[in-house]
Specification:
The chain is α+β, with helices and mostly antiparallel strands. It has 2 domains: about 5-85, lambda repressor-like DNA-binding domains (434 Repressor (Amino-terminal Domain)), CATH 1.10.260.40; about 95-225, Nuclear Transport Factor 2, Chain: A, CATH 3.10.450.50. Helix content is about 35%, strand content about 25%. It has helices at about 10-20, 30-35, 40-45, 55-60, 80-85, 100-120, 125-130, 140-145, 165-170, and strands at about 5, 50, 95, 150-160, 185-195, 200-215, 215-225. A 5-stranded mixed beta sheet has the order 3-4-5-6-7, covered by helices on one side. A two-stranded antiparallel ribbon has the order 1-2. Strand 5 and strand 6 form a beta hairpin. The longest helix has 20 residues, at about 100-120. The chain is globular and about 50 Å long. The two termini are about 35 Å apart.
Length: about 230
Amino acid sequence: MAASIRASEQGLQIVDQARRKKGWTKTEEAWYGLALTSKATLKRFWLREPIQQEIFMAICKAVGIDDWEAIADFSSQSSEGKQSVSSFTSPRPLVLDGSITQDEVNKILRLFSTRDAAVLDKNTEKFLGTQLNMQEIKGGYSNGYISCSKMTTSVLQIEIAEQNQATRDIACNPGFFSDREFDVDYVVEVREDYEHNNKPSHSGFISYFLRKADKGFKIVNLRSRKEGQLH
């Protein structure tokens, strides 16, 4: 059964501001047309009634909001329910340091959810927006990812960078990071499952090196931990 979610009161305020900027009414035909849904469903959205996750995401995207999770109301759901509407199919990641807050974990999950969505949308700008200064990363070029018909990222582990063995190993390789780039905060281990022509093709296990930025987290660099990734 498809997951259903509803908007929060605070989320509706954000949506209301976005639709006013577009000059749309709350039941604008162009809006529900772009979202490939109906006027009745858009009304249910405004009434904070549960609707299918895919439609909820489409309604947000149509009005210019990519971060649909900021609009959703998870307060009445169990932890299992929250996972069911996540863009990730894996269990919650292993967090190896108690100083990492749940808010930071959620932001990291959203970062990789955004990358998955960018691949699905063929949106190179959105994909590069997850990386520091929108720069390409050697071994993880955006065109390789965007060539996939779909990518599903499972975040496996989150660790403080200075405690991570991969970070210590890379510190001995002066060619991997510049002095400016080596200022990283977290190492995130993920599994990426790729599809081409809508058929599963292969998987990759990647270590991502993240830095806290003014607007969330940004990827500084990456390292493949297993052969078989697409790059």
